[in-house]
Amino acid sequence: MKFNPKKSLGQNFLVDNKVLSKIVEIGEIEHQDFVIEVGPGNGALTEKIFEKKPKKLIVIEKDNRLSVVLKKKFSNNISIVNQDMMDFTYEDYQTNKLIIFGNLPYNISTQILAKWIKTENIDKFCKRLILMFQKEVADRIIAETNTKHFGRLTILSNWKMEVKKIIDIEPESFKPSPKVKSTLLIFVPKKNFYEFNDPKNLEHITNVFFTQRRKMIKKPLKLLFKNYEDVSKKLNLDLKLRPQNLDNVTYYEICKLYESLVK
Ligand code: SAM
Predict the structure, then answer these.
(1) Of 82, 90, 183, 214, which is most buried with the most CB atoms under 10 A?
(2) Ligand 1 pocket test: which of 3, 61, 108, 133 has the largest number of ligand atoms within 8 Å of its C-beta?
(3) Best of 4, 13, 68, 130 to mutate for ligand 1, by most ligand atoms within 8 A of CB?
(4) pLDDT over 90 for what percent of the chain?
(5) For residue 113, what pLDDT is reported?
(6) Beta bridge partners of 186
(7) Residue 261 — very low, low, confident or very high, per pLDDT cuts 50/70/90?
(8) Cβ 163 vs Cβ 138: under 8 Å
(9) Would the CB of 167 count as within 6 Å of ligand 1?
(10) Which residues pair with 102 in a beta bridge?
(11) pLDDT by residue (tens digit) across 15-55?
């Protein structure tokens, strides 16, 4: 039967054996590890993960047609969850031995990443996440301060994760080929990170700053704080700088102050 990939589900399947092996190698799976793969598709990466014999392998696939393919391929050797990855909860997998893999559907890649980052205790139960993004999104995640890619996604991602780029991957490694390059990243949850009352405050702050990324930071500071001059003195901020000139830590400090002063 011919399988018609659904664009709406970002169905670009990896067909490059070298890339598949590289992804699994980066995961460093040990036999006591639990592995979750989101969006397994037809199971090309799943097979490679399975060969490493983790203690348990759970895959979460939204497309019912692919769940059927996976059931045929793996029978009861893995757990196949036919569900939206955005609705999946990790309560049952709160071991400190979890590794998450995902060649992510590009239309929800930033949402699922934000969900993982905001998941409480992710640093306690998850060892690492090996994730594939559209290159342009990966560039924003790993951007340095003072560059055009630096922004909301950089600040949120680096709040709780150490992020490292592994490789760029050409469109030809996928079938059907996407129009753009992809990038593989590894995320290791940080043990020490800024604690916020509500991570939504960090998102709110970065939203206010980066909605007008060309404006000087005096404007967003004024919108966020009545006493913006005190805040700028306290954090030693030059009000003429632009949002991309501040570093990640400065945004976490601004969020801490916001939570103590505004709430
Ligand atoms: N892992 C496979 C590979 O590398 O060849 C497939 C990756 S493909 C880029 C993304 C996969 O995620 C597809 O199988 C698609 O059906 C699935 N998917 C898309 N949206 C999803 C969602 N919200 N929840 C779970 N799976 C989803």
Answers:
(1) 183
(2) 61
(3) 13
(4) 94
(5) 98
(6) 130, 164
(7) confident
(8) no
(9) no
(10) 38, 131
(11) 999 999 999 999 999 999 999 999 999 999 999 999 999 99
- CB proximity list for 91: less than 8 A, separation 6 or greater: none
* Domain spans in the chain, listed from the N-terminal domain onward: 7-189, 199-261
For the chain, count helices (H), then strands (E).
11, 9
Residues 6+ apart with CB under 8 A from 230: none
Q: If we measure between CA atoms, which residue out of 262, 107, 118 comes closest to residue 200?
A: 118
pLDDT digits (tens, 9 = 90+) for 228-250: 999 999 999 999 999 999 999 99
Judge whether 7-189 and 199-261 match in fold: no
Tokens encoding 185: 């990243």
Give the Å distance between the CA of 24 and the centre of ligand 1: 17
Domain 199-261, CATH homologous superfamily name and number: rRNA adenine dimethylase, C-terminal domain (1.10.8.100)
Which residue shows structure tokens 């909605």?
Answer: 211
Atom of ligand 1 nearest to the CA of 9: 19
Question: Is the pLDDT assigned to residue 108 strictly greater than 60?
Answer: yes
173 Cβ inside 6 Å of ligand 1: no
Helices 199-210 and 109-118: crossing angle in degrees, nearest 10, is: 140
Q: Residue 171 is encoded by which pair of tokens?
A: 């469109």
Superfamily per CATH, domain 7-189: Vaccinia Virus protein VP39 (3.40.50.150)
The one-letter code for the residue type at 86 is: M
